[in-house]
């Protein structure tokens, strides 16, 4: 299923959800979302947010949250800067929920929503770690992540 929401501060988020409930339960569904966040003009490159490691530590898996969490099995698998964007591969486990595998891209685009100024484009795909590992979903996520930025403008 596909849905798009406009948030009050000019942000937009687009959701793609695997709705084939005959195969999986609600907590096992695959979710992909793209968020568009308009930024001030002084953000000119993705490095305006800090290095890839700084962004990972402050937004993806904040260390203070990791220290506070009981039974925390969250892990950053990789954080890299390539194609003028930041790429993250990580897992998060919260109590009473299955461990989830995430693949995220942070990119800064000029005029990505049709207006002037820069927009932070965040693409995140997530699925339970069990399905990611056991059902070959990793190769699908690899294709999605590798295709980012290849569509002509």
Describe what this molecule looks like in 3D.
The protein is α+β, with helices and mostly antiparallel strands. 21% of the residues lie in helices and 37% in strands. The protein has a seven-stranded antiparallel β-sheet. A hairpin with a 2-residue loop joins strand 4 (75-82) and strand 5. The protein is globular, with a radius of gyration of 16 Å. The mean pLDDT is 82.
The residue fraction in helices comes out at 10-25%
- Uncertain runs are none
CATH class: Alpha Beta
CATH superfamily: Mog1/PsbP, alpha/beta/alpha sandwich
What composes the largest sheet?
Answer: 7 strands, antiparallel
Question: What is the SS-derived class?
Answer: alpha+beta
- Amount of beta strand: 35-45%
Write the layout of secondary structure elements.
Layout: E1 2-6, E2 12-17, E3 31-38, H1 52-60, H2 63-68, E4 75-82, E5 85-92, E6 100-110, E7 118-128, H3 129-134, H4 137-147
Antiparallel strand pairs: 1-2, 2-3, 3-7, 4-5, 5-6, 6-7
InterPro entries: Mog1/PsbP_a/b/a-sand, PsbP_C
Pfam families: PsbP (PF01789)
GO molecular function, one term: calcium ion binding
In short:
By secondary structure, the protein is an alpha+beta fold. The chain contains 4 helices and 7 strands; from the N terminus they run βββααββββαα. Helices cover 21% and strands 37% of the residues.
Features:
153 residues, alpha+beta, Protein Transport Mog1p, Chain A, 7-stranded antiparallel sheet, 4 helices, 7 strands, 21% helix, globular
């Amino acid at each position: 299923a596909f849905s798009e929401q406009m948030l009050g501060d000019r942000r937009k988020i687009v959701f793609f959800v695997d709705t084939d409930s005959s195969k999986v339960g609600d907590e096992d569904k695959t979710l992909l979302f793209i968020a568009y966040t308009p930024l001030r003009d002084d953000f000119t490159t993705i490095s305006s947010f800090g290095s890839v490691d700084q962004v990972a530590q402050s937004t993806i898996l904040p260390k203070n949250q990791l220290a506070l969490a009981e039974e925390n099995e969250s892990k950053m698998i990789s954080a890299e800067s390539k194609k003028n964007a930041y790429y993250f591969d990580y897992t998060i486990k919260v109590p009473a929920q299955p461990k989830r595998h995430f693949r995220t891209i942070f990119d800064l685009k000029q005029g990505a929503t049709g207006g002037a100024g820069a927009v932070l484009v965040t693409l995140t795909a997530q699925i339970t770690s069990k399905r990611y590992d056991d059902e070959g979903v990793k190769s699908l996520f690899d294709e999605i992540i590798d295709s980012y930025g290849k569509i002509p403008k």
